[in-house]
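Project standup — Tuesday

K.O.: blocked on the structure for the chain from last sprint. Re-posting the sequence here as requested.
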Amino acid sequence: MDIKLQKIAILCNYELLPERVGGMDYFFWEFDKKCKDNNIEIDWFFPNKSNHGNYLNLSIHSNEELNVENNFLTFYKKNKPEYTHVITHFVELCTHVFYKIKKISSVKIIAIDHNPRPLNGYPLKKKINKRLKGILYSRYIDVFVGVSNYTVNEILKDFGSHLKSKTITIYNGVIIASILARDKRAIVKPRFLVASHLRESKGIQDLIEAVNLLPIASKNQIQLVIYGEGPYKQQLLDKIQKYSLQDCFSFMGSKANLNEVFSEYDYMLQPTHMECFSLSILESLAANVPVITTNVGGNTEVITSGENGYIFEARDTKALASLLENIYLGNKKISGNTRELVANCFSLLKMVENHFELLKK
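H.V.: unblocked you, prediction finished:
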């Protein structure tokens, strides 16, 4: 289907950091290229500007004094561009912002939901507030997109089942070719990594508790390497010191080349309490590195326990300790190649194509 020259706006509440280049960065670059190849111009609205990677080629608008949404509204009122679509990423759904956009423009609005939900759900007051917002503002969003089936179900739960007809799933994807693959996996004493933002909801404190529960022989030898930065780092370090586990854990900070790092390890650990659909899980699998993770969010939509990783209940430190012990001793192992599933179902090319199809509808 031929598309006439269009201009669209994409609002991304996503900070551009040269030291943290992940799957979404690659998606933004590839989607921009796909649109340009089809005569579609994009104005990108991010919290900040950056020239790392391919951001140099994007038309980026940022304002340090305004958030992404208000920066877009100010820009639109001043310049009155003829957009056909407005797409949002990492922007709160069903707020008055969507009403304001529709009030000044006839654009089609597509809202992408990447936001994880709390393990035990929202408090009652917040549930009521979200349902009211769904009644008031969901009519101004033309398409809701969840990055997993879990996310789609949460959108309907949050804002109302009346949105079902205009809510779809588009899975995240990764660039397979850029991710180095591990060719051989250690059966006994494998190497473990964690790739995560260091905040409480990522559950790394549970991993520390689990390691402390290991028998002395394993505890004295097991090595876990953590990539990432975040506000919860000191609490994690304090817990490691409390249990005298300094020899077990190494913190490597943020790395821009994690696509090359995964293949140096045998298993990835992600003890998260909340997740939508993890790109780091996809990247790890693409590196032929199985994933040990929790039963939250979209994790179970990609991890089949015993085939390409292991699933345990979030916060169950005893279950995690048991998994670690059995995997470390070779009693449990993943033998198959985990890369194939990602190549077939969760490639970045497929993600870009699916998002691009939204502009034709």
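K.O.: great, moving the ticket to review. The CA atoms of residues 173 and 348 lie 4 Å apart. DSSP finds 13 helices and 13 strands in the chain.
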